[in-house]
């Protein structure tokens, strides 16, 4: 039996082999032995005041804390504020030393869970690192002592008597280690005590004694295993209590730093820098085969296997939407986990922080994730490859980047797209084929292992298991439902599946209720494993259970992979950058490297300059354009429906009455609408003209599609102010009612307007007649052209109708039936068969030409008729009512053009400018739209070059920070 504190006992403790991941946990002898000696002196009655045991132990482990030593208490009567501060400081120091003593006791006994994997120096790195807070000492300690009641903290810590209750176990452990050592030594000497005897050997008294000794040894070994398990669980509970206290202290420190003591700027964390690189890479589409091989933890599993629950346990919050049996994860979700003073979550593209300690914020976060997933899924699809980026910070959270993928399914159900299964497989393969991706394979332990699909998929992507971590969920249900718990042992030992893995873990993620909190799930998980026979019977190892050990292992593997691969990836992007820069210099040596967003801003400014040019159009130009276009639009109606019908009358009174009636009908119904249409079309044409003219000023043709789209969308959105129609109708009606021509210039202008209009109409009519009758004799002789049979009939009909007009110069506009019959018979006499409809149609054009010729002759006579008009003389030859009509029309056009010009310049141009700005803003926020409108190799090359540079720079900054952390 070894005595507590003896050197042999310390050597036995140091050489204890932990089962945690197969790593030996050793405590250095030069540090452990003085501690054991101090504990022995303390509890064997040593009262030497020169060497208090706790001082002796603390001296050898001062690296566990950076708090300064407490000065001795001043004599009574010398109090003051300084003494009170020193008293508080002593309590803080005592608390820190007791915390160190607990960690050492734990390390010398049995490594609880995953922490036993580390050596002393490695394990110490898991404790809060205050190196970056050296700037706040000692002022920070004084500020902290004023806010924390250290007396209460000291009372909350266990007394030395409580620690003494655990020390008898050390005697037993020392005795048991001596026994185990003797067994191992005897076995090494060639006499293994547990070796089976030969059944054919004779039963001698010596063999019976050996057999009895072996059976007693086996019972003692079983007893030792149970005792070690109880001790381990006891230390595990102590460890959790210490970590909870440490977490609170860490939270206070981080909050102090978050508030910015001494106005110190806090640097971006290492994991946040790495996450930014991954965000850029997720949007990077390279044509140079520069693949993203940066590590991230890819979480894959069958649908409803518990992937989301495992992630939530690692993130320590119920952040994901959930449903009973239906697919909830419809797109990849990248979760960046990091440590921070507050437990919050935030999306990459949003500034809102969700407080994960509040249920209403948790519900809002889950709802937002669900909305983003549904928005990312295109119509007709069930899942999407678009990644949702989310960061979660909180005290004690392990730093890593995880990607939650949609669950693998075996059957497509009603309501899903037909290619859902293949799409999920392709998304999963795309993430897992990254050679540096860590695959977190989630298997549902409550169902038959043979029903799993994901294990085969993982085996294909990582056949040697060099980057796979296997997690068996719902172990509580598995233990309850399975007839043979050894099947769980086979799974966790990697003997049931052909899939290989770095490590195997078993976890419990709650009782299946969506309303369970993370703390209650953790308590349930710990209680289950403490009472589970899986752990008690040795089927599961202590380091293989709980999501806490899982998160530690995954984080460790993640950072190991990052350190091994990040520099190689930086070199790859450096080479890609060189290739892109070389291509740009060869193809676009005189152009700046403007990406799509920069080109869009340049085009936006040019378009706004072009729109402003509309307001610089002179009023005279607006009115000239409007007047000309309006007359082109209404001239046919004026000639055909107003002037010609009125001119058929024989007296002046009937002419004026007919004109007034028809003008009133026209003004009430059609004219205002036509005027607004003309104004709107004029605005569009002028806008398009300025856009086209600007192209000549060294315009970049890369903007053509964008400008055309902006112009069309702006015009489409523009709605003309219809309220202006009523006022325009009144103005036009008043203009047409005025018949008083005040001076000779107005008269001459009206005659010129009438003459130009009639000549234009006469020219159009003669062209129609030529097309009807075909080429004349000159064209037939010199141009070798012939008439068609229809044109020959038309020509004969025209000749017969012209004879009729010569005989009756004042004929009306319509042929009588007997006249049609006469013309038809005359043509038949010459052997030409003619349809009466053709006769009337030909007559209409011939009479129109005849009328316009007479009207032009009358217009020439009216040039000298202003004198008679002004004195109201009645002269049958100089009744120039048609001149007055054209003057009224002309004056209406001028007044209407002026009114429309005012509406354009004062209202519509500004509204169009506003529409253009809105369209540009909308297009600027739509990346897909910009990608469609600004295209070309030059744009893509600049985009790739910018992203590669950004990735390389961020990778180099991350590598520099990573080296500093080492």
Characterize the structure shown:
The protein is mostly helical and 966 residues long. 61% of the residues lie in helices and 5% in strands. The chain is elongated, with a radius of gyration of 49 Å.
Radius of gyration: 49 Å
Number of strands: 9
Report the span from N to C terminus: 44 Å
Structural class computed from helices and strand pairing: mainly alpha
* Beta-strand percent range: under 5%
Helix content: 55-70%
Approximate shape: elongated
Described by strand count, sense and barrel closure, the largest sheet is:
9 strands, mixed
Point out poorly predicted stretches.
Answer: 1-88, 101-120, 126-150, 156-170, 183-205, 259-266
Count of helices? 34
Strand order in space, largest sheet: 4-3-5-2-6-1-7-8-9
Average pLDDT taken over every residue: 75
Give a quick precis of the structure.
With 966 residues, this protein is mainly α.
Topology at a glance:
Blueprint: H1 7-14, H2 29-43, H3 53-59, H4 81-108, H5 120-125, H6 139-147, H7 150-156, H8 160-188, H9 205-259, H10 270-282, E1 297-301, H11 307-315, E2 333-339, E3 344-347, E4 354-355, H12 359-376, E5 388-394, E6 400-404, H13 420-432, E7 438-444, H14 454-461, E8 468-473, H15 475-481, H16 486-492, E9 503-506, H17 518-531, H18 533-536, H19 547-587, H20 596-612, H21 619-647, H22 652-669, H23 671-693, H24 704-717, H25 724-737, H26 744-773, H27 777-782, H28 789-807, H29 817-829, H30 836-862, H31 866-870, H32 881-925, H33 927-933, H34 937-965
Helix pairs in contact: 1-2, 1-8, 2-3, 4-7, 4-9, 8-9, 10-34, 19-34, 20-32, 21-22, 21-23, 21-32, 22-25, 23-25, 23-32, 24-32, 25-32, 26-30, 26-32, 28-29, 28-30
């Amino acid at each position: 039996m070894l005595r507590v504190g003896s050197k042999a006992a310390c050597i036995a403790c140091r050489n204890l082999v932990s089962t945690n991941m197969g790593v030996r946990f050793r405590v250095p002898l030069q540090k452990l032995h003085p501690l054991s000696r101090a504990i022995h002196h303390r509890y064997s009655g040593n009262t030497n005041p020169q060497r208090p045991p706790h001082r002796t132990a603390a001296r050898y482990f001062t690296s566990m804390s950076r708090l300064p030593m407490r000065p001795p208490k001043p004599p009574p009567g010398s109090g003051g504020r300084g003494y009170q501060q020193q008293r508080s400081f002593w309590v803080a120091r005592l608390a820190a030393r007791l915390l160190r003593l607990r960690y050492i006791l734990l390390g010398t006994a049995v490594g609880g869970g995953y922490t036993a994997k580390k050596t002393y120096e490695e394990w110490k790195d898991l404790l809060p690192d205050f190196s970056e807070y050296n700037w706040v000492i000692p002022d920070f300690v004084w500020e902290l002592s004023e806010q924390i009641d250290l007396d209460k903290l000291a009372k909350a810590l266990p007394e030395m008597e409580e620690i003494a209750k655990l020390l008898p176990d050390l005697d037993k452990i020392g005795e048991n280690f001596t026994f185990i050592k003797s067994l191992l030594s005897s076995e090494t000497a060639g006499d293994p005590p547990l070796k089976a005897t030969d059944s054919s050997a004779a039963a001698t008294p010596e063999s019976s004694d050996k057999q009895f000794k072996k059976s007693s040894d086996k019972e003692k070994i079983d007893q030792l295993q149970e005792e070690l398990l109880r001790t381990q669980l006891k230390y595990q509970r102590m460890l959790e209590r210490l970590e909870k206290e440490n977490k609170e202290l860490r939270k206070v420190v981080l909050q102090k730093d978050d508030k910015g003591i001494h106005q110190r700027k806090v640097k971006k964390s290492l994991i946040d820098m790495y996450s930014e690189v991954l965000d850029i890479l997720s949007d990077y589409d390279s044509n140079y085969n520069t693949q993203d091989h940066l590590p991230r933890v890819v979480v894959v599993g069958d649908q409803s296997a518990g992937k989301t629950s495992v992630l939530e346990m690692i993130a320590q919050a119920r952040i994901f939407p959930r449903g009973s049996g239906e697919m909830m994860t419809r797109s990849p979700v990248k979760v960046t986990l990091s440590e921070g003073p507050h437990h919050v979550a935030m999306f990459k593209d949003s500034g809102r922080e969700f407080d994960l300690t509040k249920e209403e914020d948790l519900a809002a976060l889950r709802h937002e994730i669900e909305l983003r997933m549904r928005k990312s899924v295109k119509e007709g699809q069930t899942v999407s490859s678009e990644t949702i980026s989310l960061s979660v910070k909180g005290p004690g959270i392990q730093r890593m980047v995880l990607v939650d993928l949609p669950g693998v399914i075996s059957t497509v159900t009603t309501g899903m797209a037909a290619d859902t299964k293949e799409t999920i497989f392709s998304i999963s393969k795309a993430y897992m084929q990254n050679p540096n991706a860590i695959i977190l394979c989630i298997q549902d332990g409550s169902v038959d292992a043979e029903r799993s699909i994901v294990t085969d998929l993982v085996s294909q992507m990582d056949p040697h298991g060099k980057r796979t971590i296997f997690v068996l969920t719902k172990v509580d249900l598995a233990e309850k439902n399975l007839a043979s718990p050894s099947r769980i042992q086979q799974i966790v030992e990697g003997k049931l599946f052909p899939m290989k893995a770095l490590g195997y873990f078993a976890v419990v993620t709650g009782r299946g209720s969506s309303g369970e909190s993370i703390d209650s799930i953790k308590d349930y998980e710990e209680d289950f494993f403490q009472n589970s026979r899986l752990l008690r019977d040795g089927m599961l190892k202590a380091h293989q259970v709980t999501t806490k050990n899982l998160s530690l292992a995954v984080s460790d593997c993640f950072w190991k992979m990052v350190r091994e691969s990040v520099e190689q990836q930086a070199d790859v992007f450096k080479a890609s950058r060189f290739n892109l820069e070389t291509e740009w210099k060869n193809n676009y040596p005189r152009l700046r490297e403007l990406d799509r967003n920069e080109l869009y801003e340049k085009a936006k400014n040019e378009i706004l300059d072009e729109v402003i040019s509309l307001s610089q159009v002179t009023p005279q130009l607006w009115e000239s354009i409007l007047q000309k276009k309006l007359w082109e639009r209404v001239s046919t109606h004026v000639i055909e429906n107003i002037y010609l019908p009125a001119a058929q009358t024989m007296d002046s009174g009937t002419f004026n009455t007919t004109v007034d009636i028809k003008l009133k009908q026209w003004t009430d119904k059609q004219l205002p609408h036509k005027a607004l249409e003309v104004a709107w079309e004029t605005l569009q044409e002028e806008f398009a003209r300025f856009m086209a003219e600007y192209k000549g000023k060294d315009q970049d043709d890369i903007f053509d599609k964008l400008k055309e789209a902006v112009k069309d969308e702006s015009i489409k959105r523009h709605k003309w102010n219809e309220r202006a129609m009523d006022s325009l109708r009144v103005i036009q009606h008043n203009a047409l009612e005025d018949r008083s021509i005040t001076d000779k210039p107005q008269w001459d202008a009206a005659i010129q307007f009438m003459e130009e209009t009639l000549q234009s109409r006469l020219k159009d009519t003669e062209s129609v007649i030529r097309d009807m009758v075909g080429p004349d004799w000159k064209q037939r002789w010199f141009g070798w052209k012939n008439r068609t049979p229809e044109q020959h009939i038309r020509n004969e009909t025209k000749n017969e109708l012209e004879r009729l007009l010569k005989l009756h110069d004042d004929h009306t506009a319509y042929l009588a039936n007997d006249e049609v019959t006469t013309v038809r018979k005359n043509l038949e006499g010459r052997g030409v068969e003619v349809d009466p409809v053709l006769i009337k149609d030909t007559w209409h054009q011939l009479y129109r030409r005849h009328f316009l010729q007479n009207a032009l002759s009358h217009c020439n006579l009216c040039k000298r008729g202003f004198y008679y008009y002004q004195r109201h003389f009645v002269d049958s030859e100089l009744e120039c009512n048609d001149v007055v009509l054209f003057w009224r029309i002309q004056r209406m056009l001028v007044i209407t053009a002026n009114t429309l010009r005012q509406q354009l310049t004062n209202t519509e141009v500004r509204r169009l400018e506003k529409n253009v700005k809105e369209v540009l803003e909308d297009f600027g926020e739509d990346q897909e739209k910009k990608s469609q409108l600004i295209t070309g190799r030059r744009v893509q090359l600049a985009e790739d070059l910018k992203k590669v540079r950004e990735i390389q720079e961020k990778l180099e900054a991350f590598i520099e920070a990573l080296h500093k952390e080492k």
